[in-house]
Amino acid sequence: ICAADAARTPAWWETCRDEVLARAARGTPRYLYHLPTVRERARELAALPAIDRRFYALKANPHPAILRTLEAEGFGFECVSAGELEHLFAVLPALAPARVLFTPSFAPRDEYEDAFERGVHVTVDSLAPLRQWPELLRGRRVLLRIDPGFGEGHHEKVRTGGREAKFGLAEDALPEFLAAVRELGLRITGLHAHIGSGVQDPRHWRTVFARLAALADRIGTVEVIDVGGGLGVAYDPDGEAFDLGAYGAALADARAGWPHYSLWVEPGRWLVAEAGALLLSVTQVATKSGVRRIGADAGMNALMRPALYSAWHRIVNLSRLHEAEGAPADVVGPVCETGDVLGRRRCLPDATAEGDVLLVAHAGAYGMSMANRYNLRDLPAEDVFDV
Ligand code: LLP
After folding, report:
1. Is the backbone of residue 184 left (phi > 0), alpha (psi -120 to 50) or beta?
2. Does residue 197 have its Cβ closer than 6 Å to ligand 1?
3. Which of 30, 124, 285, 294 has its CA 20 to 30 Å from the CA of residue 255?
4. Nearest of 44, 84, 37, 46 to residue 64 by alpha carbon
5. Measured between alpha carbons, how far is 280 from 263 in angstroms, rounded to an integer?
6. pTM above the 0.90 mark?
7. Is this complex's ipTM strictly greater than 0.90?
8. Predicted pLDDT of residue 295
9. Domains in the chain with CATH codes
10. Which residues contact residue 245 at a Cβ distance below 8 angstroms, ignoring those fewer than 6 apart?
């Protein structure tokens, strides 16, 4: 478990360690986002010729500086609630509505109404909106979210396809859906699918594209195929990196059979995960029954991913970055739950003590956006860093 760090390319927070520590001195818990990393990822993705349009799934991290950075890189945005739409247009008032997708799940009527009024692309993902609100839907242009019958991703809670997932129209329900479409004079301009988050094998998107394209051929009015987001990230620096080249190749291969459809994608995590770090301060160090615990000033309230998905994030003692790794310790937060553990059996320096700065890496996606005030603790601060 205590792998040596020697051969790794330094992360931005290692290269800029003094500045990161200076930010931590302003107060922790604090999220810090490195905008050059966001730009670098955006450009890598933009360089894939198979993709026509990219929409950033802002649920991953809606920080205004990140939205502005990605807008400047030519990205559109994928929103899932009226709140996200409102936030997006408040940050980017001049953004063209055609650069925005609204892809909600079981949202109330007024959120669809709001989205149609704003003129953004709207996705429906079951017959319910057509049946429940025919007057609102009549004559509209919409995308239809399909459940391709399988889900993928880093944890069962983030797999969004298959019978047990709430998302999308099952393929066998298409004829009934199309009958309702004809009745309401709706036009399906796009097909959409998102199979899950943290997908490592790019071949899945080829399968998804092929399924959607085959359905699109049956529908006849489809111009766009949106294969969602889900690109994986290597949280463990010794782990397998996401193969962007293979992703681009799988999409290019899929498209070859259907060049007439425009291909859209909606990545969230991949663009921002590595750009974010969570800075914490050590509060107490205690040992019970042979288990050493390093306490931090925030835990599952600031970063839910370890508690919710058993997600692994690298944790370092930034104040003692170059000291030798010590005996394994659990890094825990101050929340009154047994699950409030950010990392188990981590080899932080033995001298780790109150006031040291801990850095939780790859926390830029689904970190602050899922933080909460449980136990009435304050939300973390947020800072950006652009060098
Ligand atoms: N499009 C749709 C329709 C989505 O539901 C999502 C994510 C995305 C795109 C972006 O997926 P990404 O590229 O970020 O994987 N909180 C979980 C992840 C939940 C993802 C929800 N939907 C986590 O921390 O792992």
Report:
1. alpha
2. yes
3. 124
4. 84
5. 41
6. yes
7. yes
8. 98
9. 12-32+273-385 (2.40.37.10), 62-267 (3.20.20.10)
10. none
